[in-house]
Amino acid sequence: MKVFNQALIVLARDKEVTIANTRLKDTVGDFKTREILHQLLSHTQETASYIHMDKYVVLEDMADYGLWEEYIIFPKLGHDAGESMLLAFNMVFATGYQEVVMIGMDCPHLSPELLEEAFAALRHNQVVIGPAQHGGFYLLGMQRFYPELFNFMDAGASHWLRRLLTAINKQELRFTFLPTLNVVQELADVPEDWL
User: Fold this and answer.
1) What is the pTM of this model?
2) How does pLDDT run across 27-37, given as a tens digit for each residue?
3) How far does Cα 102 stand from its chain's mean position?
4) Which of the residues 25, 50, 117, 140 could staple to 112 if both were Cys, CB 3.0 to 4.6 A apart?
C-alpha cells in the first residue's frame, strides 16, 4: 500500500565530482572507482524500490536517468550537497508531505528495513539521523522543513553530523538515531564482494 503523506528523496551525486573528491581513486584508480560508484547507485535505487511512497531524486548526472524513471526528478539543485539537500527538502515539503527522508548514494549497507525504521521514528521524533562513521550521515528525515538545520553546509562532510546536532539542540527538536553505518570514502569501506 502506498503512503501519501511520506516521501523519500535520493541525492544522486555526479559521479565525476564524487570521483574528484574521494580518497578511493587513490587506491583503486578512476575506472574501479566508477564501477564502485555505479554499484552504490544501483544498490541505493534497488533499496529504495522496496519502499512504497512518492520518491524524488536529485539527479546531478542525467546519464543515470534510466535508473530513476519511476521517480520525480529534480535536476542538479544548488552548487554543493548541502545546498542540494536544503532545496530538495524545501521543495518536497512545500508540496504537502508530512514526513520526508533523504538518503545519499554512498552507503552500501542501507536496507529497506532501515528506511522503514526511519519513517517509523518520525512518528515520535521531529528528526531522524542515520549517522556515518566518518562524521557525516547517510540519512536525514524530518517531520517538517527546518531550514535552520542546514547551517552545516559550509563545513566539510566530516563535520556535518556535529554541526547538525548543534542546530537540532539549538532548535530544541526531538530526534533519534538509526544505527551508525559506513559510507564509502576509501577502500576499506567497500564491501569485499564489490571488489
Assistant:
1) 0.91
2) 888 888 888 88
3) 5
4) 50
Residue with cell 576509501: 186
Mean pLDDT of 177-189: 90
What are the grid coordinates assigned to 84, written together?
542540494
Q: Take residue 153 and report the three cell numbers written for it.
A: 553546509
One-letter amino acid at 19 equals I
Closest CA to 93 of 69, 65, 122, 135: 122
Instruction: Give the pLDDT score at 118.
Output: 98
Q: Which long-range contacts (CB under 8 A, 24 or more apart) does 3-6 make?
A: 3/52, 3/53, 3/119, 4/53, 4/54, 5/96, 5/97, 5/98, 5/99, 6/53, 6/54, 6/97, 6/98, 6/99, 6/100, 6/101, 6/119
Residue 14, H or E segment: none
Give CA–CA dist 15/20, Å, rounded: 9
Q: How far apart are the first and last CA of the chain?
A: 37
